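Bug #77: duplicate submission created two jobs. Keeping one. Sequence:
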Amino acid sequence: MGLKQLPKNVKDTFVNVQQKTKTKIEDMQDAVADNLPNIIAHVMSMPLIYIDREQYLRNELSKYYSEEQVQKAIDTTPAQAGIPLKLADRIANSAVKVESTQTTATAVVAGIPGGAAVAATVPADVIQYFGHLLRVLQKTAYIYGWPQFDVRAEGGNINDETLNLLILQIGVAFGVNAAHQAVQKVAAAFSQKVAKSLVHKALTKGVIYPIVKKVATTIGIHMTKEIFAKGVSKAVPIVGGVVNGGLTLATFAPSCSRLKKNLRSTPLATTTSDTDNNMTADAAKDLLNFDDIAKDATADDIDSATEETVIDE
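Kept job's structure:
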């Protein structure tokens, strides 16, 4: 049934919400892009978003392995501890499904109030979306071999290096190819035991900012388009909640699957050797050179390919 066939009061509500939401979303697009670092830092400081790597790996792996092997996975990586990639996939898939279900449930609740609550629920949509995405990011990163993100450094505040790394990983989830390449470089550096100080230095260099800016712009466009669709759907109470939840699931799960696919493909997820590669400082700097990627980030490099679906285990 088209808009013309709806009762006049419902049609008027749709049109009114659409106009108001469009104006608000257009204002939000640049705001999200310009303030993405602040948004991510704020979300990471919220309760229940932070994932402790040691605790998470212990909880997940102790179901299958001895304390000794679990401790080795914590001290090195799950791959180096002999944890099969198939099990890591199962744990990662479970994390994606749990967070997808929770963010959809939250979106349904946010969508129920009806047109009058649109203005209040739009910011909440952004926060809850990033909150669940950051939880997936941490869980999948840790099971695929990444070290603990330093989100509580510097007196409890996230530092710039870690913030940039999180933004790059989120860029992978949103399909930014430049972010994908940058994350692969950082993972390779960690797998070859490049000093963390060199990695952090590379992530604070000015050359990384075109990539971070590309990610921020892409996310601003993507999130505001999604929220605009949600805002219109909320014009009809209850039904709007169902549509809202469906839109979240349709965008959130594929983003998580894209991120999972990237993290699974890095050397951290598959390298079983714990030997030191003794990479020289010059070689490490060359590995962490983002110049070419940063130049590519100024072009339209969004990956629009269909992504894999999370597999039931």
